[in-house]
Amino acid sequence: MNHPKSFQISRRSFLRRCGATAAASGLPLWFVERELALAAEPAKVVAPNDRPGIALIGCGGMGSYDAGNCRGHGDIVAVCDVDQSHVARAIELFGKDGMPPKGYSDFRKLLERDDVHVIVNGCPDHWHSLVNIAAAKANKDIYSEKPLTLTIDEGKHVIKAVRDNKVVLQTGTQQRSSERFRLACELVRNGRIGKLKEVVVYLPAGRREGPFTSQPVPPELDWGFWQGQAPRKDYLPQRCHQLFRYWYEYSGGTMTDWGAHHMDIGYWAIGLPAPTLVESKALSTPIPGGYTCISDYEVKYTYPNGVIFNVRSTPDEDPFGGVIKKEGQRNGIRFEGSDGWIWVNRDEIKATDRELLGKPLPEGAERLYLSNNHYGNLFDCIRSRKDPICDVEIGHRSATVCHLGAISLRTGLKLQWDPEKEAFTGEHAAEGNAHVAREMRKPYDYSFVS
Ligand SMILES: NC(=O)c1ccc[n+]([C@@H]2O[C@H](COP(=O)([O-])OP(=O)(O)OC[C@H]3O[C@@H](n4cnc5c(N)ncnc54)[C@H](O)[C@@H]3O)[C@@H](O)[C@H]2O)c1
Questions:
Q1: What is the DSSP letter of 426?
Q2: At what angle do helices 392-411 and 152-164 cross, to 10 degrees?
Q3: In what order do the strands lie in the sheet with 53-57?
Q4: Rounded Cα–Cα distance for residues 134 and 58 (Å)
Q5: Rounded distance, CA 230 to CA 228, Å?
Q6: Which of 69, 81, 105 to mutate to test the pocket of ligand 1 (most atoms within 8 A of CB)?
Q7: Is residue 308 part of a domain?
Q8: Nearest CA-CA partner of 330 in 339, 342, 321, 340
């Protein structure tokens, strides 16, 4: 076919751009071409008065990062935290045209505002569900940090609130909006490595430290509110900002922290929502009076289609040296099939041989949800009212896989799981099911947001 000259020039420059992007990213050219062609579709124009009002709830490290990324899509009109120094910092950070966002200490008050259309939930894990439920009931769309929940049972409540109120929820498992992970999952799903046999996820080890000494509560912090549903404890800086992730009271250790990301990718590639068997080995025990989460571990899941999903924590002095050194990274995912393997993490994608990545997928191959911008995808979906790439069910399912591993580690048991009933069955059903939900300390139970 003869193309006009201008088309030939732009086609040539498009191909040059694809070549440069492929070389810089290590992604195969055929994959980059499709990516860039789709990205070249005209961007949706957002009128100045079409900018949603955004509120940040939980103004710590990740919440502030998320809000910064959402800023291009709307205006931050309110910020909330139980630590007043974090509220003050966020007010300073997110002011626009001399107009600072209004600060709050109770998210329920903030949710009463009509000019808040979207919330960013950057709270610690033990607050995700109540904040998300309250936001859904107030008809706000949501960007929620991962893991979506603290317990498996919470997920059912969050799904109900989101679906009943028809709001859009994007889970902060942003690896699904990265080309590398999508390429790996598309290749696995389309049989490029033959029959998938094993997935190995390497997660950073947690912290094994303590005992810690109680300290006075800083005047700017509402420690009771911060602890929320968790059992009331004396204040320790190690329980609070950032470090909460190493306590089962508020989180699940690296099993749910980094696990939320890599287990989500494992789930995307395997395509089945949950395993039916989980067993584990704790490789260390927590120090009494210190962090409560098991820091070093191995977890093995068995899926109904026979796929084995192994999870290993990898301390700096990694005990699995050979395998990990070969892959050059401590942290990532390896897919092992009958005809080859693929290794992927945030920096690289590798495979048994170049051909495995370099050969284009055929016409009619299964292609996965395409998003190259996790925040942009949320705001597109806010306009279209479609499900975002990591919708509420996906967030719940990936968190569930992490929670199952943490429950097996905590109980030391091999447990059977029924993905339909979302309950443990078999010999140790009672011990497992005792961890599916937790008692929520009053007043911070579901009635707090009813
Ligand atoms: N997606 C990612 O790559 C990624 C990276 C880091 C953290 N995270 C997630 O982000 C969340 C926050 O982690 P972080 O490292 O930013 O922690 P952080 O301690 O820095 O921030 C949490 C903030 O929430 C506030 N907070 C606690 N309870 C609150 C409540 N009831 N109402 C309002 N504010 C409240 C805290 O005071 C703190 O300012 C965690 O769930 C974590 O898993 C995700």
A1: S
A2: 170
A3: 102-104, 75-80, 53-57, 118-121, 141-144, 169-171
A4: 14
A5: 6
A6: 81
A7: yes
A8: 321
Can you tell me the distance from the alpha carbon of 325 to that of 204, in angstroms, rounded to the nearest whole number? 15
**pLDDT tens track for 113-169:** 999 999 999 999 999 999 999 999 999 999 999 999 999 999 999 999 999 999 999
| Ligand 1 atom 32, closest CA | 81
CA of 331 relative to ligand 1 center, distance in Å: 22
Q: CB within 8 A of 347, min separation 6: which ones? A: 329
Residues framing ligand 1 (Cβ under 6 A): 57-63, 80-83, 86, 107, 122-125, 127, 145-146, 172, 174, 225-226, 228, 241-242, 257
How far apart CA 202 and CA 206 sit, in angstroms, is 12
SS3 of 406, please?
helix
**d(CA 146, ligand 1 centre) in Å:** 10
Residue having the nearest C-alpha atom to atom 9 of ligand 1: 145
Of 87, 123, 444, best ligand 1 pocket probe by most atoms within 8 Å of the beta carbon: 123
Domain-located, residue 92: no
Are the C-beta atoms of 86 and 59 separated by less than 8 Å? Answer: yes
Give the closest residue to 202 by CA, choosing from 23, 36, 49, 326: 326
pTM of the full structure = 0.93
Residue 366 covered by a domain? no
CB 382 within 8 A of CB 52: yes
305-358 pLDDT per residue, tens: 999 999 999 865 444 444 444 444 468 999 999 999 999 999 889 999 989 999
Assess contact for 149 and 396: CB atoms under 8 A: yes
Cα of 310 vs centre of ligand 1, distance in Å, is 28
The CATH number covering residue 202 comes to 3.30.360.10
Q: Is 46 inside a domain boundary? A: no
Could you tell which of 56, 59, 62, 403 is best to mutate to test the pocket of ligand 1, judged by most ligand atoms within 8 Å of the CB? 62
Q: How much distance in Å is there from the Cα of 101 to the middle of ligand 1?
A: 19
Q: What is the extent of the structural domain holding 292?
A: 178-361+392-449
User: Domain tally for the chain?
Assistant: 2
pLDDT band at 49 (very low <50, low <70, confident <90, very high): low
CA angle 187, 188, 192 (to 5 degrees): 60
